[in-house]
Amino acid sequence: RIVESIFGHLERHLARDNHLVNLIFCGRYINEDALPPYLRPDTFARVRAALGHTRMRLITGTVCDALHQAPTATFDGFALSDIGSYLDDVSFCRLFEQVVRTGRKGARLCSRGILYHRELPAECAHRLRREPGLEREFARADASMVHEFLGGELL
Prior knowledge:
Blueprint lengths: L1 H11 L6 H8 L14 H11 L11 H7 L5 E7 L7 H14 E12 L7 H4 L2 E3 L1 H10 L5 E8 L1
Parallel strand pairs: 1-2
Antiparallel strand pairs: 2-4, 3-4
């Protein structure tokens, strides 16, 4: 599966345009146009502007702990990167129960998992309108080449 993912990605994208391939094989970024989004000057300016009106609170604990502390219908988006790959089944279920509880109606969810993404627990799945086309698009564009995505909108 890993080899298929990598070759599939490289059939659709030039290696020089993949920042991770640059780092792995060259030890540095060799193509400034292919910098990861978080290092691009235009992205930095957008992040800086957004931070001017963004409130953050640091929480020491697990994502489940942080979500458990949040009131119901608090968040309008979730970006969960690889977290499900490291959780046991009970913790995975707890995580998505909290996502569903704390997400507002219409909240966007993007979750990625290494090689595959577990199915959502049945009690949570009915609260998400998945977007398979968007999930496939994310997987095709993912520079790491080894992730599957689950994404959509909370109902």
